[in-house]
Amino acid sequence: MRRSAIKAASKELERIDNVFYTYANTTSGLIDPEGIERLCSDMEVDPTDVRVLMLAWKMKAEKQGFFTLEEWRVALKALRADSLSKLKKALPELEKEVRRPSNFVDFYSYAFRYCLTEEKQKSIDIESICQLLHIVLGSQYQAQVDSFVEYLKTQNDYKVINMDQWMGFYRFCDEISYPDLSNYDPELAWPLILDNFVEWVREKQS
Amino acid sequence: MGAKIIQFDQGWSCLQKGITKLKKILEGAPGGHFSSEEYMALYSTIYNMCSQNSPNYSQQLYEKYGESLTEYIRATVLPSIAENHGEFMLREFVNRWANHKVMVRWLSHFFSYLDRWFVSQKSLPRLKEAGLVVFRECVYEKVKSNVVACVIGFIDKEREGGRIDRGLLKNVVDVFVEVGMGQMGGYEVDFEAEMLADSGEHYSRKAVSWILEDSCPDYMVKAEECLRREKERASHYLHSSSEQKLVEKVQHELLVVHAHQLIDKEHSGFRALIRGDKVEDLSRMFRLYHKIPKGLEPVANVFKQQVTDEGKALVQQAEDAASSQQGSNGAGAEVGLVLIREILELHDKYMAYVTGCFMNHSVFHKALKEAFEVFCNKSVAGISSAELLAGFCDNLLKKGTSEKLSDEIIEETLEKVVVLLAYYSDKDLYAEFCRKKLARRLLFDRSCNEDHEKSFLTKLKQQCGGQFASKMQGMVTDMTLAKDIQTNFEQYLGTNPNVKPGIDLSVTVLKTGCWPNYKSSDLNLPQEMVKCVEVFKGFYDSQTKRRKLAWIYSLGTCNIVGKFEPKPIELVVSTYQAALLLLFNDSDRLSFSEILTQLKLTNEDLVRLLSSLSCAKYKILIKEPNTKTVKPDDNFVFNSMFTDKMRKIRIPLPPMVDEKKKVTEDVDKERKYAIDAALVRIMKSRKVLGHQKLVMECVEMVQSIFKPDIKTIKKRIEDLITRDYLERDHEDSNMFKYVA
């Protein structure tokens, strides 16, 4: 590599790091929730916006609400954003990338794992799931999400949702025609909660 | 010496004479036979004409052979058949065939030299064969339809009761067979097919009128008779290969076409026959339909329907009886006893038909099983079928009712119950109820007979496998061990006079594990009982090392003497009731809350206790106010004026209602474990399996004990995924993989 290229690369990394330190907590050396909030505000993006989650995915961020330097570097280098304005401009591209079918499933399952805050936690409470569904699938499958969220809030059998059920719902949106649900077959291996959901929807429709 | 060359005409005229003579013989002219010289002359003529090199007349002679036959047929044979009718025509037909065979035999003897060389050289049919073919082509083919029509006419005549010449028909049939020369095609196509079609029509017509006019039994008798006759007909004058086909045809027209009409006939059909216990007619129906492939299915279906309807009616009756007795305690239970007994009787009744009229045929066993499975599993008055059956067994095995029945009858009935159990889908629930009731019988000494208990458990084990009754068997064994401990205790008391419980005490020590779970209670014991407990504890600790005793006072009984003014009466009560009554030794009058504090019981328990002593049959306590139910602000007074004609009475304490719920909960829990275990076992051996197959195999694995709910299986699968025993395949969400 030519010396100028190397120099350019290291300059870029330096700028990336600089942006990082603008938002990082000086004691912990990480960007914490407060920092993320500032970052969002500067990017003129709501903290609950799905694009923030997408950014976390791009970083492969491990802990919800925190970004490490390493994670930050990975994402911004890939996005070729070494300044806040470039980062902001990169968001639409990022969204397009995530929404590509080959990436979306991965993003969708990441979203679930990202919310598992406790060690050995395997499921997420209904309230949080409902929010997460809106964020992640709301734009693409609004009707299904609204209906499922209503069901989750009214039923009593389940207090938490696990990964299998979470992934099952995406497959449901992807494969099952809505709102007629004509090709849904409860004899197949759909998670039981979806069988119950479909029954509930059908009862409401009649 | 050189043989003379024979010219054709010369030789032929000689042969012609021979042939003419033969014809005359066939026509019956006297003096008819060939001498050996005559025969030799004819034979040699042909021999010479065929062996001389030139001119060699083999070809012409072969043709002449055939011509002689055809000529004769045309001139004599055909006309003789054609100018006759009916029986006479048939006779001609038979005779002409016989004649033809003779003619061919003789001619082929004369011409036999041709058979040696010429025939094989030219690949021509041999003389005899060629000769018979001539008859077939020139006679048979021309007259066969007339002959067939005639024969069939006679058959129908015989069917209508007319007399016919069976021998003649047999001969005609034989001709048809022989003309085929080894092939049955001619017989089958020319005769048999027509005959079968005609027979079919004949019986179809009969069936249509009989089915309307006759009752089912009468129709069946006619059908049986027709079949017998047709069989006889076939054996007398048809070819043996036709018998089966004819029988099938007749069966089809008489029995298959109208099967439903016949079996479902309103006043005389299958159901009526069952109602009237018409064993002979039912056996006939079985016999007739047994031979028809799938013929028994419609009969078995009606049978199944009949049994199901009767069973359902019994259940409905029970339901109605229970609701009309609503309000009275134990109405459901009583009704249940009657129902189970009736179901057992129903089973006996219909099983008798299956083994009797229906010759133990599997189709009927299956129908019976499916019918019983439908109604045996229905609950009555809110009580599950499993509990009803368990209640029935409890009744059989406990004191009181069982004394009225002989040992044989009890054993027999228990056998039948175990057979009936096969139809129940919730066998594990049944076992759990049995276990609870067995515990009560054993602990309150309500069991009639240890032998019956043991024999019953053995039967259950044989029917449902070792695991099924193992806990219950453990309980029975425990009782024997407990008796030993009690004996040792009494010895201990004898040898240690300073240790006195003060009351006659007997303790039953149970091993946890096979007994149902009992809560040990916080009952505040009266002083007299506290002493007993301490004494026993001292004994037990001396006998065993580091074993802990948990006292279950809710299962104890106490004999307590009530010093009533009219006369003292011995009361057999539960320990709880005794503890309560002893409080009245210190005060005449107690309030609900006072008793509650002193005994340290729950509200519900106390209400139950006080009800049994003040609102039930025997009012040992007087309740103020004298309302039907116990309320927390009631007061209670010892009823010193209580009396009864007996000197000793039992005051029962009804069990908690929640017990039933607990049993169902326990069983549900066990089922979850069983399903989990089955799923893991299946996946461990299959490694990868689709959802539907997994569910199916799981059902198969547990169904001998209970019928699993598909939703529950799904839930367990999901649970196993969460616990990382299984995972979904990434490509196909309908496949599961075992996670090692």
Biggest sheet: strand arrangement of chain B:
1-2-6
Number of distinct beta strands of chain B: 9
Q: Kindly report the greatest chain-chain contact and the residue count on each side.
A: A-B, 14 and 15 residues
Quickly give the CATH architecture of the largest domain in chain B: Up-down Bundle
Q: CATH H level of the largest domain in chain B: which superfamily?
A: Cullin Repeats
Protein name (chain B): Putative cullin protein, neddylation
GO biological process, one term (chain B): ubiquitin-dependent protein catabolic process
Family (chain B): Belongs to the cullin family.
GO molecular function (chain B): ubiquitin protein ligase binding
Structural description of this entry:
The complex is a heterodimer of chains A (206) and B (740). Chain A is mostly helical. Chain A has 2 domains: 3-99, Recoverin, domain 1 (Orthogonal Bundle), CATH 1.10.238; 107-205, Orthogonal Bundle (Recoverin, domain 1). In chain A, 66% of the residues lie in helices and 3% in strands. Chain A contains 10 helices and 2 strands; from the N terminus they run H-H-H-H-H-H-E-H-H-E-H-H. In chain A, strands 1-2 form a two-stranded antiparallel ribbon. In chain A, helix 3 packs across helix 4 (69-79), helix 3 (50-59) crosses helix 5 and helix 7 (126-137) packs antiparallel against helix 8 (142-154). Chain B has helices spanning 8-26, 36-51, 58-82, 86-110, 112-116, 118-121, 127-159, 166-179, 185-213, 216-237, 240-256, 259-263, 270-275, 279-290, 296-324, 331-355, 362-376, 385-397, 407-421, 427-443, 450-464, 470-495, 527-543, 575-583, 592-599, 603-614, 658-686, 691-702, 710-722; strands at 557-562, 569-574, 589-591, 621-624, 635-638, 648-650, 688-690, 726-728, 735-738. Chain B has a 3-stranded mixed beta sheet with strand order 1-2-6. In chain B, helix 8 crosses helix 9. The termini of chain B are far apart. Classes of the chains: A mainly alpha (206), B mainly alpha (740). Chain A: Neddylation of cullins play an essential role in the regulation of SCF-type complexes activity. Chain A: This is Defective in cullin neddylation protein. Chain A: InterPro entries: DCN-prot (IPR014764), DCN1-like_PONY (IPR042460), EF-hand-dom_pair (IPR011992), PONY_dom (IPR005176). Chain A: Residues 11-202 form the DCUN1 domain.
